[in-house]
Amino acid sequence: MAGKFCVSLTSAKNDPDKATVAFVVANAAVASDKETLVFLSTEGVRLSQQGYADDIREEGFAPLKELMENFVKAGGLIYVCSPCFKRRKLDEGKLIGGATIVGGAKLVEFLSDGSPCITY
Q1: Distance (Å, whole) CA 31 – CA 93
Q2: Which CATH number among 3.40.1260.10, 3.30.1330.60, 3.90.79.10, 3.55.10.10 corresponds to the domain 4-119?
Q3: Does the global pTM surpass 0.90?
Q4: Whose CB among 29, 65, 80, 85 lies 3.0–4.6 Å from 5's, allowing a Cys bridge?
């Protein structure tokens, strides 16, 4: 792949527009042959739970669930902030496909070569 790209997402149902646009951009990056990571933190970690994104649909965009599934199918990575996940008492047994719970060090490792990162 030609480089890396990171999308940091701090929103879920509290701001479905940001959550949707984040995955639109992530899909564009992975389709552009970038090793692409979506880092879910704060409220964004809720998207890591099976069924949570099923009813999120912003006008003019594909449903969020579809965007997330397409991202993973294309080889995109989803990292879930461990402390944020634990603070919200979410269920590790209900993680969506392609999601991995990680500490901040994994994000730092991904970004350590100067990879661009945008935040929604």
Answers
A1: 29
A2: 3.40.1260.10
A3: yes
A4: 29
